[in-house]
Amino acid sequence: MKILFTGGGSGGHFYPVIALGETLNRLANEERLIAPTLFFMAPEPYDAGLLFQNHIKYLPVSAGKMRRYFSFRNLLDIFKTILGVLKAFFVLFRILPDVVVGKGGFGSFPALLAARLFGIPVFIHESDTVPGRVNKWAGKFAKRIAVSFADAAQFFPKERVAYTGNPIRRALLLRAPTARLEELGIATDAPIIFIVGGSLGSVTLNEAIFKILPEILPSYIIVHQTGKANLSDLVARAEVLLQTHPQKNLYHPIGYLSTEEIAAVGQGATLIVSRAGSSLFEIAAWGKPSILVPIGDSNGDHQRENAYAYALSGAAEVIEESNLTSAILKSEIEKVLGDQSRAAKMAAAALKFAKADAAEIIAREIIKMALKHEE
Fold first, then answer.
1. pLDDT tens per residue, range 264-274
2. What is the mean predicted confidence (pLDDT) over 39-47?
3. Residue 302: which of 140, 105, 113, 66 has the closest Cα?
4. Distance CA 353, CA 17 (A)
5. Distances from the Cα of 148 to the Cαs of 24, 92, 131, 225, 357, in angstroms?
6. Left, alpha or beta for 198 (phi > 0: left; psi -120 to 50: alpha)?
7. Is residue 145 within 8 Å of residue 156, measured between CB atoms?
8. Alpha-carbon distance 168 to 182, whole Å?
9. Strands annotated E in the chain
10. CB burial class (10 A; 0-12, 13-18, 19+) of residue 36?
């Protein structure tokens, strides 16, 4: 049983692949199936270590990004895509996967086109409320389509689409020991606010929270995932800003958190302030109230659409990036954490929205498709 995953270069495309890979391996072991041979085809491996840990072989392929504005790079990227399609064609001919699983993004186009030419069954998963161009196109011939938001189903043939939720890595769902927070030097004797801007951090969120640090530290512990590139600058600035602050030890800037550390901080948090990418599904699974600040210029405005679709459940508040100021962020934090009843309702709504079994549901359908193709 050979399964090839393909997707763009963002964490939102990559981490669900890891979640599905580990689930496929677990199900094969538990149910005594032949161990699947897994591949990941993309322009970049994103995290080679995670691919290796989950026995997923990386297959590099070039792919060009078609920008929505005029750029000479579009012309260059056309040739990159043509080369990528040719390479994908020969690679798929060599390995002959039973199923190709597309996660969307420009990086998935070569593998999906090659799969269509060979008649290999395609399964696609859409993480956003509004699918990108590649998944919209692939939805026309994919055998099965899974969506993370119910709203996204309208863009695909109803007889082939299912609302499954977003695959989440198992380590993020397992109960993390409180000791992990202690290992990070994080106390638990006050409400914890977790500021997370995605795997690379968010300069916008960093600046907004930084300006109100002296005012909120007496009441809250701040765990701030800054992104590796921003860490040294914020640490230096915090040294000056909080030099004489009596609770400066309550601020914890961290460049990068491992999967287990994210689980520990996320589960231990009282409130999470985040972008509106795939992390909102983890927030929902943890049952945490949140304040979402969607990226203002995301492709297709998908983060904004995601944020408001999630907020409709009652689990989150949304601050438009164009409206984000330190004063507004402080006010929203106090509104949530200053009203225990409101915070509890948001937490309950988050758990109701979450679909913790998404990875298993999708993995079983992939196995079913692969076995049928082998016949």
1. 999 999 999 99
2. 95
3. 105
4. 21
5. 19, 28, 10, 25, 12
6. left
7. yes
8. 25
9. 2-6, 37-42, 56-60, 99-102, 122-126, 144-147, 161-163, 192-196, 221-225, 251-254, 271-274, 290-292, 316-318
10. buried
Q: Which two tokens stand for residue 100?
A: 């190709």
| Max mean pLDDT range (76-85, 203-212, 330-339) | 330-339
Count of beta carbons in the 10 Å neighbourhood of residue 174: 11
| 119 dihedral zone (left: phi>0; alpha: psi -120 to 50; beta) | left
pLDDT at res. 32 = 87
Strand intervals (E) in 230-375: 251-254, 271-274, 290-292, 316-318
Matching residue, tokens 């994919």: 142
Distance (Å, rounded) from C-alpha 36 to C-alpha 24? 7
Q: Which residues contact 235 (CB under 8 A, 6 or more apart)?
A: 253
Q: How would DSSP label each residue in 63-126?
A: -----SS--HHHHHHHHHHHHHHHHHHHHHHHH--SEEEE--SGGGHHHHHHHHHHT--EEEEE
Three-class DSSP category at 291: strand
Neighbours of 122 (CB within 10 A): 22
Full-model pTM: 0.91
Residue 252 tokens read as 């914890």
Average pLDDT, the chain: 92
Paired tokens of 180: 């992990």
The C-alpha atoms of residue 106 and residue 284 are separated, in whole angstroms, by 28
Quick one: which H or E segment has residue 173?
Answer: helix 170-173
Q: Which domains does the chain have, with CATH numbers?
A: 2-168+356-374 (3.40.50.2000), 172-353 (3.40.50.2000)
